[in-house]
Here is the input.
Amino acid sequence: MLETDKGVCVDGFKAAGVREGKYGVALIAADCVCEAAGVFTKNSVTAAPVAWTRRIIKNGLQAVVANSGCANACVKEGLKDARKMAKLAGSALNVEKTHVGVASTGIIGRRINLEVVEKLVQEASAKLSKSSKASMDAAKALMTTDTTPKQVSAEHNGIQVGGICKGAGMIAPDMATMLCFITTNAEFTGSQLKTALATAVGKSFNMTAIDGDMSTNDTVVLLASGKKKCNAKTFQKLLDYVTLRLAQMIARDGEGASKYLVVDIINAKNESSAVKAAKAVITSPLVKTALYGENPNWGRIMSSIGSRIRVKPMNVTITFTSAKGSVRVFDRGRIGNLEKARKILKEKDITATVNLRLGKSKATAYGCDLTEEYVRINAGYN
Amino acid sequence: MLETDKGVCVDGFKAAGVREGKYGVALIAADCVCEAAGVFTKNSVTAAPVAWTRRIIKNGLQAVVANSGCANACVKEGLKDARKMAKLAGSALNVEKTHVGVASTGIIGRRINLEVVEKLVQEASAKLSKSSKASMDAAKALMTTDTTPKQVSAEHNGIQVGGICKGAGMIAPDMATMLCFITTNAEFTGSQLKTALATAVGKSFNMTAIDGDMSTNDTVVLLASGKKKCNAKTFQKLLDYVTLRLAQMIARDGEGASKYLVVDIINAKNESSAVKAAKAVITSPLVKTALYGENPNWGRIMSSIGSRIRVKPMNVTITFTSAKGSVRVFDRGRIGNLEKARKILKEKDITATVNLRLGKSKATAYGCDLTEEYVRINAGYN
Here is the structure.
C-alpha cells in the first residue's frame, strides 16, 4: 500500500473549497452517480443536512456540498434550507439535487445564510479540479476550530481511497462535529460500502474519544465511482488506513491540545471490555489534565478503567512510552521509576499501555491532553 | 424543619479533626454501637478502606476514622493498613476495631503513613467534643482540593440529622472522591437506614454530576444512635435535606468553579429520561465552558440532551434564570433575547430550565462551570 497525496481527488473525482468570513464551502463532484454509504450521528437532535443526506444516499450520490459556519440544526426552516443547498449545488454542477449530499458544521440554532452559501458554491464550482491542492482546499473550507486541514489517500494495485475531514473537539466529543468525506475508484454496491465503512469507523473515529455520543451533525460519507473491480479485503485495508490516519489527525488537533495520547489496552477479557477500557482512559478529564501536567498519575488511569469494567489491580501493568523511552509506572503492585516517567511525559507523543492480564483481547484509542487553551476556546466559541 | 449548626455532633456523637502537612484525620465517635448503613463506590478498583468498611458495617459502627492525604488504593498492603487504622482508632476511643469504619482520600498507589495517622488519631481523640466547631474541624480534616469545609444539620421534633463531607472534583466525578458522614439520634434498623440513604443519595450526590461512575474511595456512611423513635417520613425529609445541602455545597465548590449551575429538566417522558437528560447537561464540558464564558449557547444544552435521550427540538423551551432575571433563549424554534441572556449569565448562580414537553417527569442536577483553573488544579495535583 502506498500513501498518495490525492486526497478525495482519486480517479473520477474533483474537489474545490472556498471561504468567506465565518463561512466555508467544500464541493466534491464525481463524473457519474456513485454508489454511496454513510455513518451519521446517533443524536436524537439531528441537523437538517443529516436528515437530507440520510434520506437520499441510498439512491447514490454524484456530489457533496458541505459548509462550515452554521450547523443548520434546531431551526424550523432547516430541512427546506438543506434541500435548497443541494439544489443550488446541483445546478452549479449539473447534477440532480437528489444525488447531492449535504453536510454542515458550526453554531446550532442559527438559520443558514443561503445567499453566502450560493455565492461560495458558484465560486467553488468554477474552481473544481482534480489536483491534490483542490482536495486540500476542500479540507480547509470545512475547518472550524481545527488548526490544520486533514487529508490522506492511499493506493494499492490501482485501487485508490482518499479522504478529507474536519474535527477538533476532543474532550467529550459528544458534541464536537466530525465531518468526513471519502472517495474511491473501487466498484462496490451501497450495502457493501456500508459494511466496510462501519468496520473502518468502528476502529478509527469511534476510538477517537468519541464515546458513542455524537453531535447533531456528525457525518461520514463514502462514494465509490466503480471504475475498478477490487477484492473486499484490499478495499477494507485501504479504507481502514485512510480512516485511521484521519482519526489520528483529529486526535492530534484536539482543541487546545499540547500532547497526543494513544491508549493501548492489551490482554482484556474480551473485545467489548477492551474498547470500554480504552475509551474510559482517553475521555477521562483527570487523565487528560495529568498528561498536560506531565504528571505520571497512573492511579487515574486505573480508576477510569475500574469505573467501566472489572479489573484486578494487582494483575495490571501500566507503561508509558515516548521517544524518551519506556517505563512501567505500575507493575502488579510495584511502583516504577516516576522520575523517568516524568521525563518520558515531556515528549509530545505519548503511548499508555495497560496490560490487564484477564484475556487476549485488545483495543486502541486516540486522544490528547486537556489544557487551559481548550477551556478558552470553548468558553469563547461563538 | 430547622437548620442547626451541630454538623455530625447531634445527640450522642462527638467529633474532632486535625491536620499535619498533607495528612488530615477526622474522628466521629458515638457513645454506643450504632445501627449503620453505607453507599460505596461501584468502581471495580476499590480502595482498601471501602473494602474494610463495607465488610464490617452490617454489625454496626461506633466510630469512623477518615484521613485525607492518601487514598490507600492499589497498594498491596492496603487492607492490612486499613485494618490497622481501625485498630489504632479503636484503641484511642476504647471501641472494638470491628465497629470502626475507615475512609481515605488522596493520591492512589502510595502506601498510607500509619505513623502520621496514629499521631493524628491520638491528637484528635484528645480533642473529641460535641461542639459545632469539633464537627467543623472534622470536615476541615477531610479537605483535599476543597476550598471550604462542608457541614449541615437539621432538626424536627427532637429528631436530629447532621453531616459533613468533602468533594470538589466536578467535571467528571468518576474519579473525584466524595466522602460523607451522616449521624442521627433517630432509631432505625440498618436495613431501614440503607433504604433511606439510597433514596437520599439518588436525589443529591448522584445528581451532582456523578454520572454513575465513581472514584476508588467514594463513601457515604450513616450512623443512627437510636435515642429517639421517629417516623420514616420525617426522617427521610431530614436526611434528604442534609444530603441535598451537602451535594449543593460540593457543586458550588467544584474545582476551579466560578459559577454554580442548577439544571432543571421538566415535563420529561419518564423519570429515568429526566435524570439522564439532567446529567447529560451538567456533565457536558461544552455546556460548562460556555457557562464559564457567559455564553448563552443553548445549542450545546440541546445537543447534550439529544445525545442521551429522544427529544423533539421544536417542542423544547430552554430558559436561563439568575438574580438578574429570566429569559427563554430557545422556545419551540424561536430564539430569545441573547443579549439579555448574556446579562443573566454574568451572575454566579445560574439555573437552566429545559421544558421537554414529552410527559410529566422531572429531575434536577447540580454542578458548576469548567474553567482554566480546573485544568491547572488537576494538571498539578500531586
About this structure: DSSP finds eleven helices and 15 strands in chain A. Residues 170-175 of chain A have pLDDT under 50 and may be disordered. The domain at 260-380 of chain A is CATH 3.10.20.340 (Ubiquitin-like (UB roll)). Chain A touches chain B through 63 residues (CB under 8 Å).
